[in-house]
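Bench log, entry 3. Co-assembly request; chain sequences pasted below exactly as received.
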Amino acid sequence: MEYFLQLFFGGLSRGSVYALIALGYTMVYGIIELINFAHGEIYMIGAFMGLIVAGVLTALGWPALSILAIALVVSVLYSAAYGYTVEKIAYKPLRSAPRLAPLISAIGMSILLQNYIMLAQTPDFLPFPRLIPELAFMEPVSNYLGTSDMFIIVTSLVVMVALTLFIKFTRMGKAMRATAQNRKMAMLVGVNVDQVISVTFIIGSSLAAVGGVLIAAHVGQINFAIGFLAGIKAFTAAVLGGIGSIPGAVLGGLVLGWTESFATGYVSSDYEDVFAFLLLVVILIFRPAGLLGKQRAQKV
Amino acid sequence: MAQANPIQHPTQHVIQHVKQAFVAAIWLAFLTLPIMVIRVDTVEKTVTWRWMNLAYMALGSFVLALAWYCMMERRDQSQARKDLETVERDSALSRFLSDPRFAKPLMAFGLLVAAGFPWFFSMYQTNILVSALIYVVLGLGLNITVGLAGLLDLGYVAFYAVGAYTYALLNHHFQLGFWTVLPLGAVLGAFFGILLGFPVLRLRGDYLAIVTLGFGQIIRLVLENWSAFSFGPSGISNIDRPGLFGITYSVEQATTYMYYIMLALVLLTIFVTARLKDSRIGRAWLALREDEIACQAMGIDNTRAKLMAFSLGATLAALMGVVFAAKTTFINPASFTFMESAMILAIVVLGGMGSVLGVILGAFLLMLLPEYLRAFSEYRMLIFGFTMVLIMVFRPQGLVRAKRKVYKINVEQAG
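Structure output for the full assembly:
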């Protein structure tokens, strides 16, 4: 039972991070129908910003938890700025281009950002300081739920609730939903679509940065290439849940996290990623629009 | 007399661009500040500050941004002009290339150069060209799936891996030669294409893309982890080069021989794809790409057309896999990553989707560019990524726009 719980919570924390990144994919896709391949790189940049802030502040001798808080804030701000800039350079000029053009531009951007970090920082793995201390009150459950897992789960939950409230109740959230439904109509009723797209990128990038810092603090090391696999997995999660759907991304992330966790725990750790992709293929074959995606009738 | 002049003076434009570029440079310098300047060592708890990088970054981005804004203006102007014209104008390049007066001698010249290449250039150059030719065929194969039939396949490299491992394993265990395995690999590729094609036919657009991506990953991960079958990440070495009636030859001659095999395969592929494009099935693919429902309503069997596209693309990829294994004599799963699929897709899109000539140009550009950028070794992938973005922004339809075959009816004669 303890082993099961360990896998359960491990999968939950892993799934929450997938969900955080997947939200960025799904929101961008919902609005401009683009697989933002550079999104995984934004997550990686978030982790690096966290590392830099943490490195500077530990050198100055600050306490761990305050460093974590500052690292989170700074990395969210910077990643948001990166997301915004990437959109302005690589996607905005391509609004009216053929459908595959922004995709290729996104792949180019992803290569560019990876190499930029590799050259400006280092190609090696960097150790990430332990920012999340073992809390005393977590002692009784520490066998299956570590403090860092708990931290990830709680933070993701808070962020997701905040996002839901933002989308549901603010003016901007309403504009985003309108743009996702029908961009042209939204434009006609006076929604500033360019602004909505920018905000979408900013929010998506911020969520990815939160995920990046949390997972880096949890795993303990990062390098310039971590964004790629995380990005693909998160995109898988987004598709799994039904791309464009926000609850779908969360559900997809959790399902993916649990699948990986249980499959590695009970079957074999070599095929962790294979299970993730097999799950995707199987679900899409039986529910071609994802778990929560709407099965829309085709219009002629 | 001082009236607001609606047409701005050119120098005013330049001043405006300089201002914009200045703002962009400050923004980019701010953006890259922590990552370019600070370097932390979390073990030793030391911080290195590299302020000079900031200056380089600001200066570099100012120049780039200035060029960017000037080119952007030109792009928008030509866009506006194009909107006014009713008939689409071809670019000078494609007009030049489609004119039979120039195209025929140009083609003959190209063939002549291609035929004599290994005699005039070093083995190193020939080797690079062989890789480029492999990518030409891969590009043309993916062009069938993506460019003609409009099925976005992000796991194309899986079929390439299937071909390469078919040859490597059969050669390792049963000592089968290149020429025996070549058709076998093609058949196996087609089989895998259909195998993947069946379940994914119901999916459309991006779902198809992600499932093919997943499939590509699965194949690579299985190859990496199932050591008993594929020898794991260490790969298979000492694969035989292609045989030539039992004659033994040196490495240099082998490269030349490989080159001619590749050249023949490229010509065959060009011929086949160019003919396919105007055939019944080729036009069914185009219809499928434009509108699936309308296509079905016109009596085209969607399932069959899609499967054909998938398996034909897969066949070409598997063929190239066999050639690749024979050329390098060593393969491992690291050659078949997603980046490879992305590269082949970039060849197709960059060259111009659906255009055979464009794909050839794209393959040469993308394969030779990183090769000759080795002088900037560290920066080459950075430049490569940036070039991809730039080409897409300033020429999203690709280098050569695909042209549909047009049937002209002379009205005066008919009437």
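Chain B has 17 helices and two strands. Chain B touches chain A through 63 residues (CB under 8 Å).
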